[in-house]
């Protein structure tokens, strides 16, 4: 049986999605983001696949190849990319805004040290537990930054010119390219504390960047973007006036969700399961919906409706309470004895409650019945693509309208679909 990954936010256009599990020696493609699609199936080759635990999902975007998490993550900092906001304290630096950022925006900011012999830094008080702090940074005329929680017992010095860690105390630091040649993602993992600070020091040497060590600035610069503080690691989460929590993805096992397989009395669960694990069944259990640009479970028609229509409006399908109708196909037959009061055209249209579905058909009908012709006109048969048409709301009725009512005769209509 197969399984699906649903991203909380549709991956951006061009983002490469991959996965791996303990049974595989190399990563597998999950798909490529298009800024619309959020649901992706696990495939091994061309067949649906259910990975064993623990499996890992990665998204390669402007932040690099980032491990995704199915548990909530929170950036507890406020105004994470606006260091001019009052929640940030600016000490012996000036800020320039509107600078090109690694995500393609103009939201990075440049720090310029002043001539005061002191620490040159920006910082924010944190009143929640944190264990990971990070920021994107790029060298200017100064090449170093330090990240710390406001003490001299936990910090790391980052060399932005060479992409290396110059020094660290009481933490596990890392520095990775930010992508597109824009600087680095600098981060430290530390023992989770209940409160403290998020501090970025800048410096012209590794020695004068150490927290509590000052120097007289000369107008040197570094550029920063995207501050992040959290209990658990993960990709950067932008914030404004409050912390933001995200869950990167959810995982869904296709256990027995399809109408194609029904467990009834006398049919064991093992038999039903074997049907679901059949290769042909699995290979056809997903279908692409062009309306939403998502993959969804393939439906099988399970409801047949029939109706006779001669008036200007006739309800042909009333779903069960709380349900939507899904129209997947229909046929239309006009009886040979059909007439209009005045010969001409009548337009038959399908209507979702009161909203036209944009399926309408024009029929020329005489004023005198064709009594020499037995039976009906040739049937018009329609099978809607994909999973058909799902009504706009629960309890909506499917109606058939005629622009001109028949004087005699009738339209016979057969419809197939589901309710959900």
Overview of the structural elements:
The chain has 420 residues and is mainly β. It folds into 3 domains: 116 residues, no CATH class; 172 residues, Galactose-binding domain-like (Jelly Rolls), CATH 2.60.120; 117 residues, Jelly Rolls. The strands form 10 sheets. A 6-stranded antiparallel beta sheet has the order 10-14-21-16-17-18. Strands 11-12-23-15-20-19 form a 6-stranded antiparallel beta sheet, with no helix packed on it. About 7% of the residues have low confidence.
Quick recap:
With 420 residues, the chain is mainly beta.
Could you name the CATH homologous superfamily of the largest domain? Galactose-binding domain-like
Taking the sheet with the most strands, its summary is: 6 strands, antiparallel
Mean pLDDT level: 86
CATH class of the largest domain: Mainly Beta
| Helix percentage range | under 10%
CATH topology of the largest domain: Jelly Rolls
Instruction: Give the number of domains.
Output: 3
Q: Structural class from helices and strands? A: mainly beta
How far is the first residue's CA from the last residue's CA? 22 Å
Question: Order of strands in the sheet with the most strands?
Answer: 10-14-21-16-17-18
Q: What is the helix tally?
A: 3
- Name the shape in a single word: elongated
């Amino acid at each position: 049986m197969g399984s699906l990954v649903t991203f909380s936010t549709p991956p951006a256009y061009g983002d490469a999605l991959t996965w791996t599990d303990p049974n595989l020696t190399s990563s597998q493609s999950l798909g490529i983001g298009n800024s619309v699609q959020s649901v992706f199936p696990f495939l091994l080759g061309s067949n649906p696949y259910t990975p064993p635990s623990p499996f890992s999902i990665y998204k390669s975007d402007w932040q690099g190849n980032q491990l995704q998490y199915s548990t909530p993550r929170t950036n507890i900092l406020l105004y994470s990319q606006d260091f001019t906001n009052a929640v940030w304290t600016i000490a012996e630096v000036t800020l320039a805004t509107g600078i090109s950022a690694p995500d393609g925006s103009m939201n990075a900011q440049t720090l310029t040290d002043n001539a005061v012999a002191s620490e040159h830094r920006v910082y924010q008080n944190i009143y929640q537990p944190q264990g990971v702090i990070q920021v994107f940074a790029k060298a200017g005329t100064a090449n170093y930054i330090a990240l710390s929680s406001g003490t001299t017992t936990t910090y790391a010095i980052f060399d932005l010119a060479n992409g290396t860690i110059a020094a660290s105390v009481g933490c596990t630091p890392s520095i990775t390219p930010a992508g597109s040649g824009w600087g680095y993602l600098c981060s430290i993992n530390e023992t989770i504390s209940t409160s403290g600070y998020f501090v970025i020091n800048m410096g012209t040497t590794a020695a004068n960047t150490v927290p509590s060590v000052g120097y007289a600035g000369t107008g040197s610069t570094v550029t920063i973007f995207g501050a992040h503080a959290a209990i658990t690691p993960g990709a950067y989460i932008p914030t404004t006036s409050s912390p933001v929590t995200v869950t990167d993805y959810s995982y869904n096992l296709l256990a027995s969700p399809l109408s194609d397989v029904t467990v009834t009395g006398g049919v064991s669960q093992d038999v039903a399961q074997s049907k679901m694990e059949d290769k042909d069944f699995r290979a056809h259990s997903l279908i692409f919906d062009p309306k939403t640009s998502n993959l969804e479970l393939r439906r099988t028609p399970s409801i047949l409706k029939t109706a006779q229509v001669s008036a200007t409006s006739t309800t042909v399908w009333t779903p069960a309470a709380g349900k939507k109708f899904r129209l997947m196909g229909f046929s239309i037959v006009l009886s040979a004895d059909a007439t209009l009061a005045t010969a001409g055209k009548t337009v038959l249209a399908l209507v979702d409650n009161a909203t036209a579905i944009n399926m309408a058909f024009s029929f020329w009908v005489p004023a005198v019945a064709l009594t020499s012709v037995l039976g009906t006109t040739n049937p018009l048969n329609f099978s809607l693509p994909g999973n058909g048409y799902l009504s706009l709301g629960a309890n909506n009725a499917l109606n058939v309208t005629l622009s001109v009512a028949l004087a005699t005769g009738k339209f016979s209509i057969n419809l197939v679909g589901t309710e959900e």
